[in-house]
Description:
alpha/beta, 300 residues, globular, homodimer
Amino acid sequence: MTKQQLFEQITQKNSYLCVGLDTDIKKIPSHLLKEKDPIFEFNRQIIDATAKFAVAYKPNIAFYEALGAKGWESLQRTIEYIPKECFTIADAKRGDIGNTSGLYARTFFDKSSSGLDFDSVTVAPYMGSDSVMPFLEFEGKWVILLALTSNAGGDDFQNLQVHNTQSSVHSPQSSVQSLQQPITSKQYSINSLYEQVILTSQKWADCERMMYVVGATRADKLLKIRELAPEYFLLVPGVGAQGGSLEEVSKNGMNKQCGLLVNSSRAIIYASSGEDFAQVAAKIAKKVQQEMEKYMEIYL
Amino acid sequence: MTKQQLFEQITQKNSYLCVGLDTDIKKIPSHLLKEKDPIFEFNRQIIDATAKFAVAYKPNIAFYEALGAKGWESLQRTIEYIPKECFTIADAKRGDIGNTSGLYARTFFDKSSSGLDFDSVTVAPYMGSDSVMPFLEFEGKWVILLALTSNAGGDDFQNLQVHNTQSSVHSPQSSVQSLQQPITSKQYSINSLYEQVILTSQKWADCERMMYVVGATRADKLLKIRELAPEYFLLVPGVGAQGGSLEEVSKNGMNKQCGLLVNSSRAIIYASSGEDFAQVAAKIAKKVQQEMEKYMEIYL
Lengths: 300, 300
């Protein structure tokens, strides 16, 4: 899916909601446990109920892996079921040396190998460029790189002040639509680690192939992040159960092509634990979508 | 497995070799493709051939995931087959917010959930403490944290100079056997990021529960790393195909309980692509073991 196609879907649905499919066999309504594949059945009903209000789905791969081969099959059924217009994110936080990252790319992007055909995968930046590039070899697929995460432990390293001695001028690979200007290192000679990740990684891929993860609990940092990466989409988890504010995220983070995918997992999919779980999920998703529509009118 | 048990196995076998099971369906000898589970059959023969010379096995999870549910089943058979005295490493480079890392821990440590029962898992540090702690809730299981990786891209961030403003004195949780002294921040007020990762993470777990990944291609840094973490085991990939020197790693990195697991994957498992692949793998593994025995006599 291209950036333009994603933006068109956002304007059609008046929504930038991503529904996180953190589907836990221990948390889904008990009446589903009699189904042959309860995890898929839960996802199917959630997708049917929320697809009008959501532009993206993000299965959290840990929840499927934890069930072994069976979980992998549920994931495969789920990704096949998600409507084709929706953007799909394998929230996997992968990253390894080149030949291994190449295998992870095959896992999430190459249907003929693994049965999976995601649009994007989340990647951890610690191992650097050659751990990320193999994912970009799959045409039309996206890398979503961790920058500033929503959890408390994110502060252990992501906010460390680092000396940038690596490059004097930062010049991002610009796409046809890019309006970005080179950023001088003088301006950003000492950065937080997460800022340095954003600056360095823009050399690896432009805003047509890469996004960044920025936690909603870090909404105050979004203005600075928008200076560094004005045109990149940001995947923003942490609204809902983790306490981030949708209004603040939208105000500080939205750009001319929206530039935001705001994820909500638990607050939507586990809004009810009864037989009405899908209807209640739809109700919450609709409420979030309506709030987003309001912010799009103000900030887009 | 305890650190003491691992050390005993090392002294019994006169080896600190870890065999990496980077088993690629596209690279295994063609005569195995007629087997019901070629990946497992390859691993089974490699394990049979090398278990006398190796103290650990490290399946690279990407290679199994890339085959979807089927790959997961091969992985399960493999982990069940590895002799119980050998230390097992899920080379998965995981790490996510707390509840998700908890699921990844279930994946690799909780046989009743996923069918897998590894001794340890490799974890990326970028998301900090609460992304690592859930793995430590499984008694007797280990976290192997990425510190300084063997790939060229490791330089993008791991060698950045960071200001340590987080703690004035570093005081690792010491085990009964620990001889570590507190390290003053004055001594290490500006560190490389990977050094800061080693310093900060020692607060999370002692050397009985945590190891660090240090690439063999960075053997010159091992003396400094041994100052920072004298008693922790180091998992050292990058000898063999990636060009690291076993002698230099052993000289700079060995401590009184060996403290090293040196991994070799491709150089052993793909030493021959013919029907004799297992015999040739055994020959190479034996040669590495004999070299290790020599270094243990000199440096242990």
